Amino acid sequence: MDLHNIRESYKFDSLLESNLESNPFDQFQHWYQSYAELRIKDSNAMAIATVDSQGFPSNRIVLLKAVENNELIFFTNYGSAKGQDLLNNPVVSALFFWREQERQVRIQGKVVKISKEKSEAYFATRPYSSQIGAAASEQSQPIESRAALESKFSEFQMEYPEGSTVPMPENWGGFAIQPLSFEFWQGREGRLHDRIVYTLERSEWTIRRLQP
C-alpha cells in the first residue's frame, strides 16, 4: 500500500498571537463553536490516550459532554480499560481533530472522577437505549458472542421497560480532565503550521509558539 502521493495544502486560516484569547478555555470555546456550526456529526469527539500498568499507551474516541469550571467532562464505565487506566494513573492526553477547518487541539492534564450526583444527573438525560446499554455491558470484559450480548440487553429491557427509571450502574460515571496544557494547531501552507501552546504555571497561563 503506497500512500506517498497523498498531499494536502492547508489554506483555511492562520493562528496569530494578535488574535489569541489570553485564556485557553476561551480559545477552545471559540474554535469549538466555529466547528460545531458546520453541523458535522460528532463534532465533540475527542481521542484520549491513557497508559496501562505495564506502560503501554491506548487510544480511543470518546465524546466531550461539558466544559465547566475549567474542566472537560466525559463519561464511561469505570471498570473499562480506560477507566482502570485513569484510576490507576490519573493523567491523560486528549486530541480534537477538526479536519474541515484544518485544526487540532491537544490537551494534557490530570483526571478526577466527578461526583456521583453529577453522573446520575447526566445519566438521566441519556436515551433509553443508551441507559440500557450502559447497564447491560461490562465494558472491556470478554463475552462469548454477539447473541449473548444482545440477550443481556434484552434481559435489562425486561427488568426496566421503556418509561421506567433505569438506575445508573454503580461502576459508571464521569471523569473531569483538568488541563495543564493546550496546544492549538492550525494547518498552514508549505507545512509552516501554526502551533500555539498554553501552559499552566503557578496558576497562570503562559503562551508560546512552537516551530512546526
CATH topology of the largest domain: Pnp Oxidase, Chain A
Our count of helices gives 5
Mind telling me the C-alpha Rg?
20 Å
Helix-residue proportion: 10-25%
Q: What is the topological layout?
A:
Elements: H1 24-36, E1 45-51, E2 57-63, E3 66-68, E4 71-77, H2 81-88, E5 91-98, E6 103-113, H3 116-123, H4 128-136, H5 146-159, E7 172-186, E8 194-201, E9 204-210
Antiparallel strand pairs: 1-2, 1-5, 3-4, 4-7, 5-6, 6-7, 7-8, 8-9
Helix pairs in contact: 4-5
Task: Characterize the structure shown.
The chain is of the alpha+beta class and 212 residues long. The chain folds into 2 domains: 17-124 and 172-210, Pnp Oxidase, Chain A, CATH 2.30.110; 125-167, no CATH class. 25% of the residues lie in helices and 34% in strands. The protein has 5 helices and 9 strands, in the order αββββαββαααβββ. Strands 1, 2, 3, 4, 5, 6, 7, 8 and 9 form a 9-stranded antiparallel β-sheet that branches. The longest helix is centred in the C-terminal third of the chain and has 14 residues, at 146-159. The model has no long low-confidence stretch (mean pLDDT 95).
Primary descriptors:
5 helices, 212 residues, 9 strands, Pnp Oxidase, Chain A, 34% strand, alpha+beta, 2 domains
Summarize the model shown.
This protein has 212 residues and is of the alpha+beta class.
